[in-house]
Specification:
mainly alpha, two-stranded antiparallel sheet, hpI Integrase, Chain A, 3-stranded antiparallel sheet, single chain, 200 residues
Length: 200
């Protein structure tokens, strides 16, 4: 795990996918795990997590994967009164977990995570404290909800080599400049994998 201190004394935390996986694994409830994974596996902002309803989930045209419509995303361009609409990738196992949660009577238009933004932030803090104890890595105590989105974007862009345009569409960014910070230094594993294929 790599950390960077900001001028305002906050931290940016860069995690591998294995390091990230400790956080939802240490969530105290199924609902907290779903909220954490919506940020870390789908790239949602914490406020967007609160707007997810069962009706926002549907199968992709191929029929084997799922998508999540984000209906109230942050609009940094000033073009949209109600925020931008986008579709992001929803892992199959996360769709199944959400489906199990909502079988207990959540209507298609009701939020899956019917809590406050602060509650979701507390869930992340709580899971990270547990992860710190379990792994012995105190950097988990510095992880914020935005670090989960950062981890998702960095994983796709740097570790998986997904096109920046695709990541921009999935994450709701309007410009390359907005995602450039997520293109931080690649991991040692990524360097080794990439350079082993180069004939020098």
């Amino acid at each position: 795990m790599r950390t960077e201190r900001n001028r305002d004394a906050s931290w940016n935390v860069w995690m591998t996918r294995d390091e990230y996986a400790e956080i939802p694994r240490n969530a105290h409830s199924d609902l907290a795990e779903v909220a954490i994974r919506l940020m870390g596996d789908c790239g949602l902002r914490v406020a967007e997590v609160l707007d997810v309803t069962p009706g926002d989930i549907s199968r992709r045209s191929g029929g084997r994967s799922w998508k999540l419509e984000v209906v109230a995303g942050k609009d940094t361009s000033g073009e949209y009164d109600q925020g931008k609409h986008r579709e992001t990738w929803l892992p199959r196992d996360l769709e199944a977990r959400i489906n199990r949660l909502v079988q207990d009577g959540v209507d298609d238009s009701e939020p899956v995570v019917d809590r406050s933004k602060r509650t979701v932030q507390n869930w992340v803090e709580r899971a990270c404290k547990r992860a710190a104890v379990e792994t012995g890595d105190d950097d988990y105590r510095r992880v914020s909800t935005h670090d989960l989105r950062r981890c998702w974007a960095h994983h796709l862009l740097v570790e998986e080599g997904v096109s920046p345009r695709i990541v921009m569409a999935l994450g709701g960014w309007d410009s390359y400049d907005a995602i450039e910070p997520y293109l931080a230094a690649p991991t040692e594993e990524n360097i080794n994998d990439s350079m082993s294929a180069v004939d020098l």
